[in-house]
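STRUCTURE:
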């Protein structure tokens, strides 16, 4: 008998339950993975709350790292004992072990720990597609990263600096400002004390930034658009404060013929080849030490509800993992 976090109704963290579950032998094309670490991401709170509706009851969680225990018929290239990680497929990573289609798994290099693997798959692959595909950042450009001390934000800042960009980061308090500066931000704005749109214009001599990476959503969207230079790009990739309200498209013309996009991870790892290429780039950057994955919080998996509370109340920085 294995255990997993499941929920039977949407709501606050209190709906998460630690349950015993049956785990049959893997079906054809599936692999059973024994998790060593599970990633916590803000999208998990959207699934739990009902912002992103799911059939209920449901499991939770999109990424984990562990060891292959068994393989189903027709699985090639994986065997018991292999170290693996994933960040796609059906929800259900909040579990001691699970069956998952082999096509979602990538081999985890020996140089990368299970904890790093679980902490960086979704956030790191997201940072890769945002910086290299959604808007390919170029050396010499100035960009704005909201929640710069958070999970995705902390990776975005470091990777953008590797690409030669100047980075303005926003954070909520002084402790997070120190962290964002240490990650490489050229300028840090504490949005609770400063109007970030006005400050961005000051820092750029009135020009604005080439791109804004915004995971905050409703509370920052309009001001983020106003930070852009002519024909700049607004990348809204999260809803930490709620979904962005409908707006008049004329705003884009009035703001300098700017672009707005709302990307999603699955569209950037839609093929096996794309998934492997992004993971290879991430593993290389982390394995070489050029990109640091800050695991700043660890919780027992059965304490996932408390982890959700802390995440939603902005008590966390960097990456957070759940330990089965």
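SEQUENCE:
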């Amino acid at each position: 008998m294995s255990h997993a976090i499941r929920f039977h109704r949407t709501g606050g963290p209190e709906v998460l339950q630690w349950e015993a579950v049956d785990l049959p032998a893997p079906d054809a094309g599936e692999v059973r993975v024994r998790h060593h670490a599970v990633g916590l991401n803000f999208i998990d709170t959207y699934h739990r709350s009902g912002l992103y509706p799911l059939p209920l009851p449901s499991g939770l969680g999109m990424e984990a790292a562990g060891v292959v225990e068994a393989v189903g018929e027709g699985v090639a290239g994986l065997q018991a004992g292999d170290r693996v990680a994933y960040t796609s497929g059906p929800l259900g990573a909040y579990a001691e072990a699970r069956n998952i289609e082999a096509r979602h798994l990538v081999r985890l290099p020996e140089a990368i720990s299970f904890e790093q693997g679980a902490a960086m798959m979704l956030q790191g692959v997201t940072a890769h597609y945002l910086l290299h595909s959604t808007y390919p950042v170029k050396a010499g450009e100035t960009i704005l990263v909201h929640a710069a001390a958070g999970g995705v934000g902390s990776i975005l800042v470091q990777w953008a600096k590797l690409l030669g960009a100047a980075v303005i980061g926003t954070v909520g308090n002084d402790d997070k400002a120190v962290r964002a500066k240490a990650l490489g931000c050229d300028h840090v704005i504490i949005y609770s004390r400063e109007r970030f749109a006005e400050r961005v214009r000051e820092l750029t001599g009135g020009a604005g930034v080439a791109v804004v990476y915004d995971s905050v959503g409703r509370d920052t969207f309009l001001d983020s658009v106003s930070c852009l230079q002519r024909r700049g790009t607004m990348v809204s990739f999260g809803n930490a404060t709620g979904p962005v309200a409908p707006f008049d498209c004329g705003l884009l013309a009035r703001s300098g013929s700017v672009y707005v996009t709302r990307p999603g991870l699955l569209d950037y790892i839609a093929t096996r080849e794309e998934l492997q290429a992004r993971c290879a780039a991430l593993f290389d950057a982390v394995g070489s030490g050029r990109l640091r994955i800050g695991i700043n919080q660890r919780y027992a998996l059965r304490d996932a509800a408390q982890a959700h509370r802390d995440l939603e109340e902005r008590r966390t920085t960097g990456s957070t993992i759940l330990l089965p």
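REMARK: The two ends are 14 Å apart (CA to CA).
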